[in-house]
Specification:
Length: 417
């Protein structure tokens, strides 16, 4: 039975890897735009806002490109976060080549854009009006009623039917409401508290890691905030057993040193650099299945559950589980032979094996970092059986799955190589 699970996992992984490879290599907007130096600013801003990853991961789309002069009017007065919103209005979720532009039924149509998928748009804000004007001109404008058609079709840049069409237009398409910036000096703790990540918010404040996050905000940061439930889950090690330096490392491990919206997380291969990273340690890896991204630490894993804030270049996600770095919580149990030798023995907290719940700390979740310890939560660094993955009554069964998963993955990798 174990082997059939393993086979199933391998097949599943193999197919998801294949899907991943096919999708991510379909087209490359940066390469397409590089054919025209007049589109260099447009291309550069797609990269800075990571819209390039989103565009590369989609099919049946049309990109409305702006030349450098048109871009300068859009970029000179706006924050990167506003620029991202405006540019995502220039990615149509449908395929329009020049011929289709000139044969729109009834001469006018509203088409959905990438901005619509952010969830912050009304259906009209997130759509673009394409109208076939007299004399062969095609006009573009915001889908908000009453908007003017301020932009016109200039020329075709590239078509790869029916995956991507890139057309140049004369002027930016502006939906006035998108100009309102969600200021980039966002209050991280306020966002976290509002979204049910109070424990995490209080940990980063009390440990001083909040300052480190803030120092990174200008260059770009991605924060993975475990929910309050995540800290209370069974199998979460008793964080009060960690010393200050270890708490800091754990919290730094929950942030990447760059802006990575979901399209970027999906396209990442290899390991992600966290604020705690150094010399190949404290890195994260990702796996993608459809629209869902899972983070892997080597000890445990967590789904990226939701986006709490996306204000380029700052993004905050909620995650279902506390991310446990190998460097602090030891390696996964024996059947997985892949751990790097670097992450060897001891740094984990060597404390009394039976870390019984401290009766003093009752129901006060705010008293971080002395978070209430889950009953009898095993101290992570002892015997293999009590390793961190122990998620419930069926701990035994559940623990073998990730190990086989890893083993299967190794198998697949060696097949692929
Ligand atoms: C369009 O995308 C599909 C799926 O990614 C890919 O298989 C196909 O080769 C692409 N078509 C062209 C012309 O590149
Ligand atoms: C796309 O093309 C650019 C320039 O040609 C290259 O630097 C970049 O790595 C490519 N991106 C992907 C995802 O292949
Ligand atoms: C770039 O723009 C200039 C001025 O608008 C134009 O003369 C030139 O032909 C353009 N270059 C390309 C490659 O389209
Ligand atoms: C930038 O903003 C100023 C004042 O709000 C305005 O006068 C100027 O025209 C704007 N520049 C561009 C290029 O939009
Ligand atoms: C085109 O116009 C006709 C008559 O006004 C209408 O019945 C039809 O639904 C329109 N088609 C589209 C695609 O809007
Ligand atoms: C597009 O805009 C024009 C001009 O504002 C308007 O007449 C037309 O009805 C709009 N088209 C749609 C489908 O809303
Ligand atoms: C944008 O901000 C201005 C001023 O702050 C406000 O008056 C306006 O209602 C806002 N528009 C939208 C659509 O939020
Ligand atoms: C951020 O929000 C918290 C409450 O969540 C508040 O205590 C703090 O003063 C705020 N910081 C700033 C700089 O506004």
């Amino acid at each position: 039975m174990a082997s059939s699970i393993k086979t199933t996992k391998s097949i599943f992984l193999l197919s998801s890897l294949l899907i991943l490879f096919t999708i991510s290599y379909a087209h490359n907007i940066t390469e397409i735009l590089s054919s025209d130096p007049n589109l260099s600013q447009f291309s550069s801003y797609l990269s800075q806002t990571k819209l390039d990853d989103e565009i590369n991961s989609r099919q049946t789309i049309t990109v409305l490109a702006l030349d450098n002069a048109a871009m300068s009017s859009l970029t000179s007065n706006n924050s990167l976060s506003v620029i991202k919103n405006l540019l995502s209005l220039h990615v149509l979720l449908d395929y329009y080549d020049p011929k289709k532009l000139h044969s729109i039924q009834n001469g006018t149509v509203l088409t959905t854009t990438l901005y619509q998928t952010t969830g912050s748009a009304t259906s009209q804000e997130g759509s673009v009006n394409i109208t076939d004007l007299k004399g062969g001109t095609v006009g573009f404008g915001s889908g908000v009623p009453g908007s003017k058609l301020e932009s016109t079709y200039t020329k075709s840049v590239k078509q790869i039917p029916y995956n991507i069409s890139v057309l140049e237009i004369s002027d930016p398409i502006i939906a006035p409401s998108l100009m309102n910036s969600s200021s980039s000096d966002a209050n991280i703790t306020a966002v976290l508290e509002k979204a049910g990540c109070k424990t995490f918010a209080s940990l980063i404040s009390s440990s001083g890691v909040l300052k480190m996050y803030q120092n990174q905000m200008e260059k770009g940061i991605t924060i993975f905030a475990p929910t309050d439930e995540a800290f209370k889950a069974k199998g979460v090690p008793d964080l009060s057993k960690l010393n200050n330096a270890e708490i800091v490392s754990l919290l730094q491990f929950h942030a990447l040193t760059s802006y990575a919206p979901i399209g970027t997380l999906k396209s990442k291969k290899g390991s992600l650099t966290t604020l705690a990273s150094g010399a190949g340690k404290y890195d994260l890896t990702t796996k993608t299945a459809g629209d869902s991204v899972t983070l892997h630490t080597g000890v445990d894993s967590s789904r990226v559950a939701g986006t709490l804030l996306d204000s380029t270049p700052v993004i905050i996600y909620s995650v279902d589980n506390v991310l446990l770095p190998v460097e602090l919580f030891g390696v996964a149990p024996s059947p997985a032979p892949i751990e790097s030798p670097a992450s060897s023995p001891s740094p984990a907290p060597t404390k009394s094996p039976a870390s019984s719940p401290s009766p003093a700390s009752t129901e006060s979740p705010a008293s971080a970092p002395t978070e209430e310890s889950p009953e009898g939560s095993p101290s992570p660094s002892e015997s293999p059986e009590s390793a961190a993955d122990d998620t419930g009554k069926n701990g035994g069964d559940q623990r073998t799955v990730p190990a086989l998963f890893v083993a299967g993955f190794v198998g697949v990798i060696s097949l692929v190589l």
